[in-house]
Amino acid sequence: MHSLIADGWSVGVLSRELATYYSAAIRSLDPLAQLDPLSIEYGDYSAWQRQQAQTAEYQRQLDYWTSCIEASRPAELLRDRPRPVIPTGCAEVEQFKIDHALYDRLQQFCKEREVTLSVVMLSALAATSYRLTGVNDAV
């Protein structure tokens, strides 16, 4: 499962619960009766989150991040043609293939550093973005 879908901890929970369901099903047991009851449900979390949004601390943090974003400037990307006066929102997609040898080296690099390929690729994107724009804090 891709890390955008679930993090490692969540995949572990999902795997354990799926194994419990499967085990119960092959023994003709009620799968829900085999799981511990949830200590909190999403509705409880949602109510807590709404309550937090009413606090002074939440407002302080919101004000801080709002000021950070307002103070930021858009990164000026290098372009190979002039920008239209009225933006169209149209863009192109560039695709390229990474050969197997490079992919294998990237996988080895990730393994040695105990990071995911997504982290390495995001780091490469950040480094490239800085090289092209001189901006090191994208908002």
TrEMBL record:
Please give the Gene Ontology molecular function terms for this protein: catalytic activity; phosphopantetheine binding
Residues of the Condensation domain: 1-139
One Gene Ontology biological process: amino acid activation for nonribosomal peptide biosynthetic process
Residues annotated as transmembrane: none
Domain of life of the source: Eukaryota
Q: Name one GO cellular component term.
A: cytosol
- Name of the protein in question: Destruxin synthetase
